[in-house]
Amino acid sequence: MKLDLGHKVISFDDDIIDLGLNTKAWNGGEECLIRDLENQGPLPSCLIINERYGALSMALPIEKGVSLFDSAYYKTKSEHNYRMNNAQERIQSKGIMDDISGNYSAIVISPPKEISLLQHYITLGLYHLHDNDYLYIPFMDKHMSKAHIQLFESFCDEVFVSKGYKKGRYLRGVKKNSLKKKPLLQYTKTTYRNIEVINSEGVFASGRIDRGTQYLLDNLHIIPYSHRVLDLACGDGILGMSYKKEHSDCTIDFADASQFALDSTQLSLKANGLEARHLYWSSSYDAIPNENKYDLILLNPPYHMGNSKTTQIAIQMMEESYHHLKDKGELWVIANNHLGYDRHLFRQYSHCQVKLKNNKYHILMARKER
Length: 370
Prior knowledge:
Helix content is 27%, strand content 33%. It is built from ten helices and 20 strands.
């Protein structure tokens, strides 16, 4: 099997994968699960939830599979890798909030960082699992806690913890009871500066407003009026909604790689009586038409991808923003001081300023000038 990771094509027997994202295409827990399942023969069907790059679903001994993604980034990369390995007929990709039907012979969940989101994935998986068939969750040892095992035991019987393999292992169990209704997402609500925010599980800073966002919101008055606006990596949408409340005649788009985030943005817009021109499920600008040009782009870029940290996605967003700005259009970025994004902006934009700074965050403005 070959995988295209954006800058490097690898084979499945590579031991350590450097993606430039401080992450891997698979881990020891997944290898442990694949090794044990291969000894049992092929499974007729499998539902895979939250995988990365498609390596897991392609390596599993399954006849047919459906892979569910919250991340547009990982969905796009996985679909490319399915095609590269002629696996697109065997494995179908869908968004985590898309409708799926039927039951499966196995469910495999790549665990997210947030345990509340893992609970949703478990209940979603069990809802689509045949009685007496297995749910599997592969972990790296350093990421599996007693709380994870207790959560698994609360939903599953015949719980089995595998032996360790390459610093990973997996949990296996059958569902305790048939779930009669599809599980619903849990939401939290918070209010900041007269904006009501509704967050689903898995959205960054769910149930609170992170301090970087607060810093930009508290100083939103320094950003001049613009007509055509994009809130990129919008999360729950509070930056764009706050700007829209201040400038009601502007038109605004929202974009995020997370389907959960866009669901939260849509609910938050409705709660505040606001409308968006368009919502894009997009990793950076992948799903945004090339002809879309903006007077203003607001960006609180992602720094975490699951259990990993990376600046690569943020740098890509800042670079690609240049091509989606009108002449004289401005990109405003809020970020931690230590990440050094100002250096990247100064290299690409002829006019760039640190507009405000405290001991942890800075607000950057870059203007496109020809």
